[in-house]
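Table 4 source record.
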Amino acid sequence: MFENSVEDEIVNGLKKMRLDPANIKYVILTHGHNDHINGAKFLQDTYNVHLIMSAADWDMVEQNKNFRGPKPRRDMVATDGQKLTLGDETITIYLTPGHTPGTVSLLIPLRDAGQTHLAALWGGTGFQFSAETYNKQAERFRDIVTKAGADVILSTHPQLDKSDVKLRLVEKRQPGDRNPYVVGNDVVRSYLTVAAECSAAAELRPDLYKGYLGR
Protein backbone atom coordinates (compact mmCIF):
# COMPACT_ATOMS: atom_id res chain seq x y z
CA MET A 1 0.00 0.00 0.00
CA PHE A 2 0.92 3.67 -0.19
CA GLU A 3 2.25 5.32 2.97
CA ASN A 4 -0.90 7.43 3.41
CA SER A 5 -3.18 4.37 3.52
CA VAL A 6 -1.14 1.70 5.32
CA GLU A 7 -2.57 2.48 8.75
CA ASP A 8 -6.17 2.54 7.59
CA GLU A 9 -6.06 -0.35 5.14
CA ILE A 10 -3.54 -2.74 6.71
CA VAL A 11 -3.33 -1.95 10.43
CA ASN A 12 -7.01 -1.14 10.94
CA GLY A 13 -8.00 -3.80 8.45
CA LEU A 14 -6.22 -6.47 10.47
CA LYS A 15 -7.83 -5.22 13.66
CA LYS A 16 -11.24 -5.35 11.98
CA MET A 17 -10.58 -9.04 11.35
CA ARG A 18 -9.57 -9.45 15.02
CA LEU A 19 -5.90 -9.86 14.14
CA ASP A 20 -3.14 -8.01 15.97
CA PRO A 21 -0.71 -6.24 13.61
CA ALA A 22 1.91 -6.43 16.39
CA ASN A 23 2.07 -10.16 15.69
CA ILE A 24 3.36 -9.68 12.13
CA LYS A 25 6.75 -11.35 11.79
CA TYR A 26 7.42 -11.12 8.05
CA VAL A 27 6.07 -9.15 5.09
CA ILE A 28 6.73 -10.60 1.64
CA LEU A 29 6.95 -7.83 -0.96
CA THR A 30 6.12 -9.29 -4.36
CA HIS A 31 7.81 -6.43 -6.21
CA GLY A 32 9.22 -2.97 -5.72
CA HIS A 33 6.61 -0.69 -7.27
CA ASN A 34 5.51 2.29 -5.16
CA ASP A 35 1.93 1.13 -4.70
CA HIS A 36 3.13 -2.15 -3.20
CA ILE A 37 5.91 -1.06 -0.85
CA ASN A 38 5.31 2.57 0.20
CA GLY A 39 3.75 1.40 3.46
CA ALA A 40 6.49 -1.12 4.19
CA LYS A 41 8.72 1.28 6.10
CA PHE A 42 5.83 2.12 8.44
CA LEU A 43 5.39 -1.57 9.26
CA GLN A 44 9.14 -1.95 9.58
CA ASP A 45 9.44 0.99 11.99
CA THR A 46 6.23 0.40 13.95
CA TYR A 47 6.22 -3.37 14.38
CA ASN A 48 9.86 -4.30 13.68
CA VAL A 49 8.80 -6.72 10.95
CA HIS A 50 11.18 -8.41 8.54
CA LEU A 51 10.69 -7.41 4.91
CA ILE A 52 11.40 -9.99 2.22
CA MET A 53 12.00 -8.96 -1.41
CA SER A 54 14.21 -10.19 -4.22
CA ALA A 55 17.75 -8.82 -4.53
CA ALA A 56 16.96 -7.38 -7.98
CA ASP A 57 14.01 -5.39 -6.66
CA TRP A 58 15.86 -4.23 -3.54
CA ASP A 59 18.46 -2.88 -5.98
CA MET A 60 15.75 -1.34 -8.17
CA VAL A 61 14.22 0.51 -5.22
CA GLU A 62 17.56 1.74 -3.89
CA GLN A 63 18.57 3.05 -7.32
CA ASN A 64 15.20 4.67 -8.10
CA LYS A 65 15.74 8.42 -7.79
CA ASN A 66 12.08 9.09 -8.57
CA PHE A 67 10.75 6.86 -5.79
CA ARG A 68 7.84 8.55 -4.02
CA GLY A 69 7.50 8.13 -0.29
CA PRO A 70 9.79 6.56 2.32
CA LYS A 71 12.03 3.75 1.13
CA PRO A 72 12.10 0.68 3.34
CA ARG A 73 15.46 -0.40 4.71
CA ARG A 74 16.96 -3.33 2.84
CA ASP A 75 16.28 -6.51 4.78
CA MET A 76 15.83 -10.16 3.84
CA VAL A 77 16.48 -11.33 0.27
CA ALA A 78 14.05 -13.74 -1.39
CA THR A 79 15.55 -16.64 -3.32
CA ASP A 80 13.99 -19.05 -5.78
CA GLY A 81 12.28 -21.95 -4.05
CA GLN A 82 12.74 -20.39 -0.61
CA LYS A 83 10.53 -21.75 2.18
CA LEU A 84 9.13 -19.46 4.86
CA THR A 85 7.64 -21.40 7.77
CA LEU A 86 5.66 -20.12 10.74
CA GLY A 87 4.06 -22.76 12.93
CA ASP A 88 2.66 -25.47 10.66
CA GLU A 89 2.34 -23.19 7.60
CA THR A 90 5.00 -22.97 4.90
CA ILE A 91 4.89 -20.48 2.03
CA THR A 92 7.12 -21.15 -0.98
CA ILE A 93 8.65 -18.21 -2.85
CA TYR A 94 9.59 -18.29 -6.54
CA LEU A 95 11.50 -15.67 -8.52
CA THR A 96 9.31 -14.74 -11.51
CA PRO A 97 10.80 -11.59 -13.08
CA GLY A 98 9.04 -9.82 -15.92
CA HIS A 99 6.74 -7.33 -14.22
CA THR A 100 9.86 -6.00 -12.50
CA PRO A 101 13.45 -7.30 -12.56
CA GLY A 102 12.81 -9.39 -9.43
CA THR A 103 9.09 -10.05 -9.05
CA VAL A 104 8.29 -13.01 -6.80
CA SER A 105 5.26 -15.31 -6.84
CA LEU A 106 4.02 -17.51 -4.02
CA LEU A 107 2.41 -20.82 -3.18
CA ILE A 108 0.31 -20.39 -0.03
CA PRO A 109 -1.36 -23.31 1.82
CA LEU A 110 -4.88 -22.58 3.04
CA ARG A 111 -7.60 -24.20 5.11
CA ASP A 112 -11.32 -23.61 4.81
CA ALA A 113 -14.17 -25.46 6.48
CA GLY A 114 -11.91 -28.37 7.35
CA GLN A 115 -10.51 -28.70 3.82
CA THR A 116 -7.02 -27.85 2.59
CA HIS A 117 -6.35 -25.74 -0.48
CA LEU A 118 -3.34 -24.19 -2.18
CA ALA A 119 -3.24 -20.62 -3.49
CA ALA A 120 -0.98 -19.44 -6.28
CA LEU A 121 -0.23 -15.73 -6.06
CA TRP A 122 1.09 -14.31 -9.33
CA GLY A 123 3.33 -11.52 -8.13
CA GLY A 124 2.92 -8.94 -10.87
CA THR A 125 0.51 -8.65 -13.78
CA GLY A 126 1.76 -6.57 -16.68
CA PHE A 127 5.11 -7.15 -18.42
CA GLN A 128 6.61 -3.75 -17.71
CA PHE A 129 10.18 -4.99 -17.43
CA SER A 130 10.50 -7.64 -20.13
CA ALA A 131 7.84 -9.45 -22.16
CA GLU A 132 10.30 -12.23 -23.01
CA THR A 133 11.25 -12.86 -19.39
CA TYR A 134 7.63 -12.54 -18.29
CA ASN A 135 6.57 -15.15 -20.84
CA LYS A 136 9.16 -17.66 -19.69
CA GLN A 137 8.29 -17.18 -16.02
CA ALA A 138 4.52 -17.36 -16.59
CA GLU A 139 5.00 -20.70 -18.33
CA ARG A 140 7.37 -21.88 -15.59
CA PHE A 141 5.04 -20.87 -12.75
CA ARG A 142 2.14 -22.48 -14.61
CA ASP A 143 4.08 -25.75 -14.56
CA ILE A 144 4.80 -25.29 -10.85
CA VAL A 145 1.17 -24.66 -9.87
CA THR A 146 -0.03 -27.51 -12.09
CA LYS A 147 2.28 -29.97 -10.38
CA ALA A 148 1.46 -28.59 -6.93
CA GLY A 149 -2.30 -28.75 -7.56
CA ALA A 150 -3.06 -25.12 -6.70
CA ASP A 151 -6.81 -24.49 -6.77
CA VAL A 152 -6.91 -20.79 -5.79
CA ILE A 153 -5.52 -17.93 -7.90
CA LEU A 154 -4.56 -14.61 -6.30
CA SER A 155 -3.15 -11.45 -7.80
CA THR A 156 -1.68 -8.25 -6.41
CA HIS A 157 -4.66 -6.14 -7.51
CA PRO A 158 -8.26 -7.05 -6.63
CA GLN A 159 -9.65 -6.52 -10.13
CA LEU A 160 -7.15 -8.99 -11.58
CA ASP A 161 -8.27 -12.03 -9.58
CA LYS A 162 -11.87 -10.80 -9.17
CA SER A 163 -11.39 -10.18 -5.44
CA ASP A 164 -13.53 -7.08 -5.90
CA VAL A 165 -16.40 -9.50 -6.61
CA LYS A 166 -15.33 -12.50 -4.53
CA LEU A 167 -14.97 -10.58 -1.27
CA ARG A 168 -18.61 -9.49 -1.51
CA LEU A 169 -19.59 -13.12 -2.07
CA VAL A 170 -17.53 -14.22 0.95
CA GLU A 171 -19.43 -11.69 3.11
CA LYS A 172 -22.73 -13.27 2.03
CA ARG A 173 -21.50 -16.85 2.28
CA GLN A 174 -23.69 -19.25 4.24
CA PRO A 175 -22.62 -22.52 5.93
CA GLY A 176 -22.19 -25.15 3.26
CA ASP A 177 -21.69 -22.64 0.41
CA ARG A 178 -18.59 -23.13 -1.66
CA ASN A 179 -15.75 -20.67 -1.24
CA PRO A 180 -15.72 -18.34 -4.28
CA TYR A 181 -11.94 -18.27 -4.22
CA VAL A 182 -11.64 -22.02 -4.82
CA VAL A 183 -11.72 -22.22 -8.61
CA GLY A 184 -9.83 -25.45 -9.32
CA ASN A 185 -6.47 -26.21 -10.88
CA ASP A 186 -7.74 -25.87 -14.46
CA VAL A 187 -8.70 -22.24 -13.86
CA VAL A 188 -5.41 -21.46 -12.12
CA ARG A 189 -3.51 -23.01 -15.02
CA SER A 190 -5.63 -21.10 -17.56
CA TYR A 191 -4.98 -17.81 -15.76
CA LEU A 192 -1.23 -18.23 -16.21
CA THR A 193 -1.69 -19.46 -19.78
CA VAL A 194 -3.38 -16.15 -20.60
CA ALA A 195 -0.47 -14.28 -18.96
CA ALA A 196 2.01 -16.28 -21.04
CA GLU A 197 0.10 -15.83 -24.30
CA CYS A 198 -0.36 -12.07 -23.83
CA SER A 199 3.35 -11.60 -23.23
CA ALA A 200 4.11 -13.79 -26.26
CA ALA A 201 1.92 -11.48 -28.34
CA ALA A 202 3.91 -8.51 -27.05
CA GLU A 203 7.10 -10.19 -28.21
CA LEU A 204 5.60 -10.53 -31.70
CA ARG A 205 4.63 -6.83 -31.84
CA PRO A 206 7.58 -4.93 -30.34
CA ASP A 207 6.41 -1.77 -32.11
CA LEU A 208 3.24 -1.73 -29.99
CA TYR A 209 4.85 -3.12 -26.85
CA LYS A 210 7.54 -0.43 -26.80
CA GLY A 211 4.94 2.20 -25.89
CA TYR A 212 3.82 0.15 -22.90
CA LEU A 213 7.26 -0.78 -21.57
CA GLY A 214 8.00 0.77 -18.20
CA ARG A 215 4.51 2.19 -17.64
